[in-house]
Amino acid sequence: MKTGAYKNRSLPAAVSITEGVIWKQLLLFFFPIVLGTFFQQLYNTVDAIIVGRFLGKEALSAVGGGTGTVVNLILGCFIGLTAGASVIISQFFGSGDKDRVSVAVHTSMAFSLAGGVAVTILGLLFAPALLALLGTPEEILDPAVRYIRIFFIGVMPQVIYNMAASILRAIGDSRRPFYYLIIGTLTNIVLDILFIVVLNLGVEGAALATIISQAVAGVLSCLALMRTTECYRLIISKISFNIPVLKSMVRLGVPSAIQSVMYTVSNLIIAAYVNSFDTNTIAGWAAFGKVDSLFWMVINSFGIAITTFAGQNYGAGKIDRVKKGVIQCGLMAYIATAVLTFLFMKYGAWIYMLFTDDVVVIARGYLILRSIAWSFFTFIPIELLSGTIRGTGRSFVPMMITTCFICILRIIWLLTVVPVRNDITTVCYSYPVSWIVTGMVFIVYYIVLARKNFARSVD
């Protein structure tokens, strides 16, 4: 794909991020994403608070920890594939090619429908077996299996929402996905209370509340695409596969999917180690995942913002603007991470009290938090530079760097260091060790690539 190859540049300026003050545009694009991600994380957090308070620590462990990792393995693979669609659409949009934007949108939606069926089948077939393989304790296994089966039966709306939201963000609209997530989150909170507290449906109620609320957000996102008069309008009768565009999406998306899978595989191994400890530690780890998600929603939102920013500006041929965006986005990400790390280290124990009043679980969870939170800043180069590189149409090298220097290194740590000092803090240290090494490799690769002005269009 050649940058600046298309002459039709009459796309609506309201969603173009190829002009104007960079840091302001990044922030305007970032805030709806981070707020939307906050509400998306609130889905899971509300589940955890209500489940932990009303159903106990065994149920909390069942819907978090290893269960969440299994969900991320299967669903995350598809979400990784959607990254290719987002990059392709953002580049077409930045270059001003209306026709190819429309083709890419309809191919993306066809891909999401097929992917939703695949995710459902894979989840129902393999998720229960993976939970058992992880060594999930017997008292947790049954409710975890019941939760995860219902989740995957209703996963299609979540798959469609993720694709529709990716399309809107690719053309520079991060506000509407945010609005729809607010509505979905409020629906989730109401249904959690109804299903768990009032109707006593247990972990099944938590699963039902999540999938129904995701369906609400998915329907609203699709309606937004169907009602627009712009080039990214979704027309049901036109949903089909365009083979050349699909190949480009797959070429960019498969490495991202593999990267997501490798991330999750390493986390599955970590979950297996955590499951070898007592239920209090498992519950503390599950609650840590909810607290930890506050950092990830911020840094991932910066990653989405810089990927779209890089994609549109690379498509418009504005390479210097891409480089400036990386620096300014990085500064903002470091400031946000410093604030979050301070809050976590100082008030982490109080945050855990939202999920449980078990003092042992709170102590274990806070120990886990302190072992990892200090190193959050080391992950910033990984997220921002890999996002920028993917935005310019390169996804293979970021996948290889991540696989080798995060996933494999983390697994080596677990197999060699943890057996020597077998406690939860040693397991936790696998994160900062892998982040520091991987971040250094990404910095070196980006400097070399930037000096070449991103000369190649794709891998």
What does this structure look like?
This protein is an all-alpha fold. 80% of the residues lie in helices and 0% in strands. It is globular. 54% of the residues are buried. Mean pLDDT is 81; it is low at 1-14.
Helical/strand content category: mainly alpha
Give the proportion of residues in helices. over 70%
**Distance, first to last CA:** 11 Å
What is the average per-residue confidence, as pLDDT, rounded to a whole number? Answer: 81
Helix/strand layout:
Layout: H1 22-54, H2 57-63, H3 66-95, H4 98-133, H5 138-153, H6 156-170, H7 175-198, H8 202-227, H9 243-275, H10 279-315, H11 319-352, H12 359-373, H13 380-391, H14 396-416, H15 424-428, H16 430-451
Essential attributes:
disordered N terminus, about 0% strand, mainly alpha, 16 helices, about 450 residues
In brief, what are we looking at here?
This protein is mainly α. It is about 80% helix and about 0% strand.
